[in-house]
Amino acid sequence: MSQLPPCPQCGSEYTYEDGEQMVCPECAHEWNKTETAAAEAASLIRDANGNELQDGDTVTVIKDLKVKGSSSVVKVGTKVKNIRLVDGDHDIDCKIDGIGAMKLKSEFVKKV
């Protein structure tokens, strides 16, 4: 038997299937099964090569990146250790030696 996902609205673990719909008996929220799968796939953050990234990973910059508000540049091949994944357009929060705290887009890094 497969494990059913919790309710996305209230977090209840008592969800059940009703045809193509998922139903929460506690808050009466109904949602489509395909919405759940699409939301899980969208929440994954992947690097430029398609590898899944996780908190604490080490990545390498694959393109020269200008630092906004400064004349410095993050060079190709710069290693960034212990990344943190966040929601938003710039989905990696990190510290780069010599520059400081930055936010990066996952499309400009690759997992080491």
From TrEMBL:
Pfam families tied to this protein: YjdM, Zn_Ribbon_YjdM
SUPFAM superfamilies according to UniProt: Prokaryotic SH3-related domain, Zinc beta-ribbon
Residue ranges annotated for the Protein YjdM N-terminal domain, each copy included: 3-32
Residue ranges constituting the Protein YjdM C-terminal domain according to the UniProt record: 45-112
Top-level taxon of the source organism: Bacteria
Family membership noted in the UniProt record: Belongs to the YjdM family.
Protein name per Swiss-Prot or TrEMBL: Protein YjdM
Organism phylogeny: Bacteria, Pseudomonadati, Pseudomonadota, Gammaproteobacteria, Pseudomonadales
